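Interim report to the steering committee. The following record documents the input for ABC-2 type transport system permease protein (188 residues).
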Amino acid sequence: MIGAAAVVWGLWAIWTAISPPDILPAPLSMAATGFAAIAAGTTLTGPDPDLDRTAALPWPTRRALHLTLAALVVLGLLLSVAGTTHGYGEPAALARNCAGALGLISLGAATLGSARSWFYLVPFITIPPFVPISRTTGDGVLGQILSWPLQPAESTTAGTTAAVLLVLGAAGYILRGSRLNTSARTAG
């Protein structure tokens, strides 16, 4: 989680130094959220995959707690600069983006493994700022879904998209755990 803090505060410090007050574009806010979630995603596996699968203690409860703590840490980091002239945005939008990002990260961990957990999130933090798709709630629903991280806090479509991503990702990770890295296991 030190990496998440470095990303959030590093981007904030750089942007504060080079831009006028009260100017922070939504893509930079989503980049900070996404990269912090990616850093959190690297923790979604244990050192021993066999132990993760066979322990007598209930792993789903631990995974749910782990995901909740990761979400709180990432959101807390983003909100830590909220009182400054270069805050990352409205708390409701930050919470929505944090939920959606961690949903994609946990879905990636469950299906691709923690080392590749970021694969599903990266398109949402790199493509929408550069593609002419909807960035307002008055435009098409598909555009709002594809650019959910950039939508205003009051966007119902963006909120629903983030909630669906969180539920799917969290359910996959909590019930299944992180996918085994078969290439590393067969090499040893």
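The chain is about 65% helix and 0% strand. The committee is asked to note this result when reviewing the revised timeline.
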